[in-house]
Structure formats: C-alpha cells, structure tokens
Amino acid sequence: MESMRTINIRISDFASAMGYCQYIAPNIYELGLKRKLSRQLLAGKALHERLEAEDKLVPREEATKEQLADAFFDLDFTREGISVCVERVNQNNFRYNGRTDKVIRYKGDVYIIDDKTTSKESVPDRLYLDRLLQLGAYCEGFIRTYSPMISFNRLLFRVIHRNPAGEVIQEKSMEYGQEARAILVENFNKFEGLINKTMQPQHHNNPNRCRPCGFFDACKWRVESPALPKGV
Ligand code: SF4
C-alpha cells in the first residue's frame, strides 16, 4: 500500500485546473510543467505590485486583540498580508495555500478582495467558476485560519476587474455561504480525484481555451484550430 503524501497546492492552480482546464492538474503535479507568463499575467503582476506599493503608504496602527474580536470595529489589513491554508485528507494530505490580495472588515462583515486585470473593455456579469473557486478557497482558508481571533458576521468575496491602467471596470461580490461552500467542496473532491488518479481529466475540446493557455507550448493534450484551406 502506498504511504500518504503531503501535496502542496497553490489555490490559484487548483482554481484554474477546475475552472479552466482539468489537464492543468497533470501538467503541474505529474509532469512538473511551469506556466509560461503571458502578457496578461505580467500586466497583472505589475498592477499587484503597484497596488501593494500604494497600500504601504496608508498610515495604519496594529489592531489590538480586543479590536480584532469586536466585529463592528472596521479593519483594513495590509495588502497581500493575509495568507490562508485549507488542509484536507483524501487518500493523501492536500494542503491548499494562497495569499489574499486584500481583506477588510466593514460594518461587521469581512470582505476578501481579489484584483484581476483584463484587456477587455467589458466583463460578463456572471462569476467565472475559476474565480468562484479561488475566492471560495480563500474564504474557507480564512475561516479555518483566522476565525478564532477575528470576529465577523458574514464573509463575502469580491472580484474587481481592472484594465491594465488599474481602473476598475467591474466589481462582483458574493457571500461565502452554503451554496459557494458546496461548489468548492465538490471541486476539491474532483481535483483530488485527478491527483489520486481515481478520476480522468475531462477535456473541454476548445482550441480557443488552449491558444492563450500558459501550458500551450508543452501540453500534449492541447487542441489547435484546424488550418484553413489554401487561399482562404
Ligand atoms: S493547452 Fe489546452 S489542454 Fe493543455 S492545459 Fe492548456 S487549455 Fe488544457
């Protein structure tokens, strides 16, 4: 019988494997491939660095234990300052790690905020599955890591889409309640099934997803658009 392993997973990788393409799981965790940084990822990195530098200029005092325990004392945590972890046992020990962009507590509710960059001028109103899974996992990690010391009534997550200049083009919030947690747990189970090889990845068969994918060059499961006939 194989002994239990501890597998460290970045929450963002889990979210893209379940919300974008399931072959991302074997590419990272079996084949050890690294995602190539696209122009959009580099723009996102630059924006995060800028927002973090601006946030450091905001004057803050460290909250006391009593203030943390008082849900109605508003809090504004340092950007990129809250790391979370979700541990689950499912044949192996799965440890999902991530660092939130921004966390605030306002009027008794905690908001976990994530900034995404997009080159599009508008973003559909629905919340993409990868976003929901990433933010849901952060919320779950926040509950497990911080709820003994930070009080709150509701826990919500907010995705802020910005253009490369940093201007907000859309914000979408959702409460992390039973519905979001059920979707998260279902996807944790599927993802762990892929790693434990009790499940096969499902292919989306969509060349439009493969084309911008950071694994495209090395991925043996990629699908490409058929070449156009000569003269077209
Ligand atoms: S290249 Fe296509 S099949 Fe491969 S990981 Fe990316 S989206 Fe999935």
List keywords for this structure.
7 helices, 232 residues, binds iron/sulfur cluster, 5-stranded mixed beta sheet, 23% strand, alpha/beta, Lambda Exonuclease, Chain A
Explain the overall architecture.
The chain is an alpha/beta fold and 232 residues long. Helix content is 34%, strand content 23%. The strands form two sheets. The protein has a five-stranded mixed beta sheet. Strands 1-4-3 form a three-stranded mixed beta sheet. The protein has helices at 11-19, 24-29, 39-56, 65-69, 129-146, 178-196, 207-210, and strands spanning 6-10, 75-76, 83-90, 92-99, 102-106, 109-117, 155-162, 168-175. Helix 5 (129-146) crosses helix 6. The protein has one domain: Lambda Exonuclease, Chain A, CATH 3.90.320. It is globular. The protein is built from seven helices and eight strands. The longest helix has 19 residues, at 178-196. Bound molecules: iron/sulfur cluster. The site of iron/sulfur cluster (SF4) has 12 residues, from helix 2 and helix 7. Iron/sulfur cluster is lined by residues 21, 23-24, 27, 209-210, 213, 215-216, 219, 221-222.
